[in-house]
Design goal:
34% helix; 258 residues; alpha/beta; two-stranded antiparallel sheet; eight-stranded mixed β-sheet; globular; 12 strands
């Protein structure tokens, strides 16, 4: 099982801890690619039009300015830095024992700055979306699409990939034909009609992630086994689970009902 998560826009800046060491992050072969993005981000964040280049409003100017000192800023495990809706529901920072070990083996967080992380990789808080384009790297999804296959393809091959990413982050890497790729979507059903939701989708994906990590027994290895695991929360977290599609590309729909 390989669980793919996006980072979160909401981050808690560490107040203590040694700075990030690019060579000690997961997939150290990505260190040169990370260096290039980090340098480009620092440069653009120091300019007056930094917020507009990064696609954020003036109210986040302080967070953009913080990007200029990421090499010396305090760092902490990604599971503690990412504090958005999905990550709060997943509760990665609070995992212990076998669940923590499973998260280390199975959870990968796609990032516009770092490429890919595990929950225990130590990073500073930063402001950068995969949807941004930096001078020197271009669109980050395209940039990382050149580097991530070398570090993710082998892990995904022959396994089930539980894809909880948004479209922006999904564009940075797609599993190859040897993996069973299951995209997780969430819909709200009311009066017989269904509507795709966003905020609730993040929460539901986080709940599913945590369940897959803490449930007893072996982790899912196929799309059908994944659907069975998700069905264990029918009646509590969601009203129904549907697995659609054929072959190596499937969709797991979590149905919330009023």
């Amino acid at each position: 099982m390989l669980v793919l998560l996006p980072p979160s826009e909401g981050k808690t800046a560490p107040t203590r801890g040694r700075p990030v060491d690019l060579g000690r992050l997961a997939a150290p072969a990505l260190a040169p690619a990370r260096e290039r993005v980090l340098d480009a981000l620092r440069a653009v964040s120091a300019t007056p039009d930094g917020p507009s280049v990064l696609g954020v409003g003036p109210s986040l100017a302080a967070e953009v300015e913080r990007n200029t000192a990421l090499r010396t800023a305090h760092a902490a495990p990604a599971a503690r830095v990412y504090t958005g809706v999905l990550h709060t529901a997943a509760g990665l920072a609070g995992l212990t024992g076998p669940a923590r070990a499973r998260a280390g083996r199975s959870v990968r967080i796609l990032s516009g700055l770092w490429g890919v992380l595990t929950p225990t990789d130590r990073i500073p808080a930063y402001r950068l979306s995969m949807g941004a384009a930096l001078p020197g790297t271009g669109p980050l999804a395209s940039y990382w699409r050149e580097h991530l296959p070398a570090v993710l393809d082998e892990q995904a091959d022959g396994d089930v990939v539980v894809d909880c990413r948004s479209a922006t982050y999904a564009a940075a890497w797609r599993p190859g034909a040897a993996a069973q790729h299951v995209a997780v979507q969430v819909v709200r059903e009311s009066g017989g009609r269904r509507q795709v939701v966003s905020h609730n989708a993040k929460h539901a994906r986080g709940v599913l992630t945590r369940h897959l990590l803490v449930r007893p027994g072996r982790p899912p290895r196929t799309a059908d086994q994944l659907a069975h695991a998700a069905e264990e929360l029918v009646g509590t977290a969601w009203g129904a689970v549907e697995l659609t599609g054929t072959g190596r590309r499937r969709t797991l729909t979590l149905v919330e009902r009023d």
